[in-house]
Amino acid sequence: MQRITILGSTGSIGVSTLDVIARHPDRYSIHALTAHTSVDELCRQCEQFKPRIAVVGSEPAARLLSQQLRQKDLKTRVEFGPAALAAVSSDPDCDVVMAAIVGAAGLVPTLAAARAGKKILLANKEALVMAGQLFMDAVQTNGATLLPIDSEHNAIFQCLPKNYRRTPSEQGVAKVLLTASGGPFLNRPVETLESVTPAEAVAHPNWIMGRKISVDSATMMNKGLEVIEAHWLFGASADQIEVVIHPQSVIHSMVSYIDGSVLAQLGNPDMRTPIAHALAYPERIASGVAHLDLTSIGQLDFKKPDFNRFPCLKLAFDALRAGGSAPAILNAANEIAVQGFLDGRTGFRMIDQLIARVMDDLPHIQVDSIEGLMEQDLEARSIASAYMNS
Ligand code: NAD
Ligand code: MG
Fold first, then answer.
1. Please, which pLDDT band fits residue 204 given cuts at 50, 70 and 90?
2. Whose CA is nearest to atom 25 of ligand 1?
3. How many CB atoms lie within 10 A of CB 274?
4. How many whole angstroms separate alpha carbon 300 and alpha carbon 281?
5. Coil, helix or strand for 285?
6. Fewest beta carbons within 10 Å, which of 201, 215, 303, 305?
7. What are phi and psi of 75, to 5 degrees?
8. Residue 125 Cα, ligand 1 centroid: separation in angstroms?
């Protein structure tokens, strides 16, 4: 029986993870569930999955949850705050951590899981974008196992040679090909992008996801973050990573080998497939996802991404090439800009402009501690907020 902590259990990935786990009560039990503010949903999950511990973001939320659990006569212990998140991910009573908090808030608890040598199912790409080297070092030093949940990286993982050692060229890998749907604005006239609304931006054509990643998909910053994620996961340089727009989201990504072979992983766009793959790896378990019916899809299309339409993708490649703190700065500025857009405080086109300005303003430096990275993250946030308010 594997005992699992789900960081961010009330989010889109968290809920899909619980859906897969509910299908295999003989294999998995829940050690801890966490949510930031969604107390009612977390209480409902506690009722169904009976975790030992539930963590929320604040003391008032913890009081409310305790009250609701008592009314249902549930024994789940309630805790709150960042230290409690790190504790449930490093607890000796937990074997597997699903890292599914959105944004930089997921870094510290995910790193705690790495330092405790856990099996980590990584959805929280921002953690790897911010602290790639430190995170990969912690995984290696402490014998943790890192399995990608992001559908593209999970696909690449499935297409790489067994026992891949993060040195593409030595193992016959020429390139990794990250597919991208192009999001809701792939064909919208570029000059009308300024006026798009948050509701239009979060309406993804193929995937149902949280609001932040949905906006990231509309700007293609999501793909940019995934390029950086692929660099850290697979040891691929910026030149060894190619983004291919594939609007049907059926091929989740590919690996191109030096002999001309290209291996792809296909499936319906449903995150329960990569989640089930990583949960059971190296075995296979049912996920609840319908079988792919290629003849009903009929056609698969591919095109090159256009940096004029999607400047955020270029900014991410630039940050990867710059190295050091640049990806952390990019990520922080993006989080502020996306929140500003979702709150109606700034236009869609301001997202890339704001990130570019913060990247220009803040010199990127080499950082060798989490504290140093957090300082860069905070500084980038404050510069981005100042621009947005001016
Ligand atoms: P979501 O917004 O639906 O859920 C986020 C979860 O994190 C919620 O449980 C929320 O309570 C918690 N949370 C939010 N802010 C927090 C904070 N400050 N402290 C602690 N907890 C906090 O997001 P999602 O779509 O499930 O995405 C989660 C992560 O997975 C993101 O990093 C995203 O990029 C990645 N991802 C998501 C998908 C997808 O299909 N949704 C696909 C690939 C990768
Ligand atoms: Mg993805």
1. confident
2. 210
3. 29
4. 29
5. coil
6. 303
7. -95, 5
8. 10
Q: What is the percentage of the chain residues whose pLDDT exceeds 90?
A: 96
Q: Which amino acid is at 207?
A: W
Residue type, 241: I
Question: Which atom of ligand 1 is found nearest the CA of 85?
Answer: 20
Pairing mode, if any, of strands 2-7 and 241-245? unpaired
Give the three-class secondary structure for 72.
coil
Q: Compute the C-alpha angle 176/177/179, nearest 5°.
A: 145
Kindly report, residue by residue over 269-323, the tens digit of the pLDDT: 999 999 999 999 999 999 999 999 999 999 999 999 999 999 999 999 999 999 9
Q: What share of the chain is helix, strand, coil (3-state, %, to 5)?
A: 50, 15, 35
- Classify residue 365 by its DSSP letter: -
Give dist(CA 318, CA 313) in Å, integer. 9
Q: What is the per-residue pLDDT for 163?
A: 86
Counting ligands in written order, the one closest to the CA of 220 is 2
Helix (H, G, I), strand (E, B) or coil at 91: coil
CB 291 within 8 A of CB 195: no
For residues 35 and 41, the answer to whether their CB atoms sit within 8 Å is yes
User: Which residues are CB-contacts of 165 (< 8 A; sequence separation ≥ 6)?
Assistant: 171, 235
Q: How would you class 158 by CB atoms within 10 Å of its CB: exposed for 0-12, middle for 13-18, buried for 19 or more? A: middle
Distance 151 CA to ligand 2 centre (A): 5
Of the CA atoms within 13 Å of residue 326, those in its CB half-sphere come to: 16
Which residue ranges have their beta carbon within 6 Å of ligand 1?
8-14, 35-36, 38, 57, 100-102, 105, 123-126, 150, 207, 209-210, 212-213, 271
Angstrom distance (rounded) from CA 54 to CA 41? 12
Q: Looking at residue 165, what is its pLDDT?
A: 86
Ligand 1: nearest atom to the Cα of 35: 11
- pLDDT tens-digit readout, 101-113: 999 999 999 999 9
